[in-house]
Write the structure tokens for this entry.
Amino acid sequence: MIGEVLEGTMAKIAVIGAGYVGLTTGACLAFLGHDVVVADNDNDRVNSLKIGEIPFFEPGLKELVSEVVDSQKLSFVFGAANASKNAEFHFLCLPTPANEDGSSDLSFFEKGINEISSVLKPNSIVVNKSTVPLGTAKKIQKALGRNNTHVVSNPEFLSEGNAIKDFLEPSRIVIGANSKQHSERVAELYSKVDAPILISSWESAELIKHTANAFLAMKLTFINEIATLCEITGANIQDVTNGIGYDPRIGIHYMQAGPGWGGSCFPKDSASLTQVARSFGFDFTLLEHTIELNQQHLDRTAHKVKQLIPKDGKNKRVAAWGITFKAGTDDLRYSPAVEVLKRLETEQFVISAFDPTVKGEIPELPLTEIANDPYACAEGSDVLAILTEWDDFKQLDMEAVALSMRTPNLLDTRNVFDRHEMERIGFTYIGMGT
């Protein structure tokens, strides 16, 4: 475990929303010693949390929740008002999904504000953790309609699979407020966290979160485009990324070629930022093209699978290892693996997929069989596509896998395996940018 719950003079905090951000935020704030109540409007979820059941996979979170609950620093209630009525700080951790036009759906967010507004104590601070469009904090302050309740923007920078470390050992903490007094009150909540604290306006804090995710999406798109160029020219993307990654102006992070990017944040935040820009009369052409190029890259990845399928014969079988949008999570939202498989389902292939954290059917993939075992998934297939970079796959007996396949074709979209070793085993190996 990460250590004992910290002690000291602490605040009473309500966390509204027991999803990925809310539960992680609540557990980590409780670990820092605060008295935290997490609320959700899903009674089944609340009851499950009360008996220690975590509704999603995040390494270490189940253990952390158990520890802070046992320390009586964290509890769960049904209904936002029940959490907020005794709190000084109210953390909004509510979903803001994308509308069809790419703009943010703020209905859950607005409902949460309405539920707590009548029970807020004087001098309460409403802290927004949700990813929201520019100008939202100002709208919240106006909607609350009172001078003795204050709004602060404190965007989250949690990476799924690494969320606890990201919260307790962050690269930075961003706090946006319209007064120094209120930003300092929120900063004090993080007094036991060793990280630089950036104080800004509401607008800057809101834009920082969108900009960070959009920039990382753009970086991944650029590397995937270079990977395609490597395939055409005979260069190796791993050599290229190593060569440029040593440049401190570029760095080594988010430099891995893959099937395309996705997840709960990058697609939504990139689309939202283009809509925000458009609402201010600015066409964000670079970001719009980034989104478009990612779709093209997903198309290319699906096409690579098709190219490896033998042209003759019936019941052509595709096996896929990895369904989540990245390793270390069970999150399927906008997963590039799912997007590739959706494209393959239109080809009348027999498709089987395996992922260490995914069980049962996936509504978005009605024609894909979800296997419980990676070996069974690959058996009899014409091509095996590695779509998520789980370390578990490196421990498997790939010789046995090759022997079990009808035609041992391997598309490694995450460059998990060594080309020469796979070819020695007997695979026809295709990597990404190699």
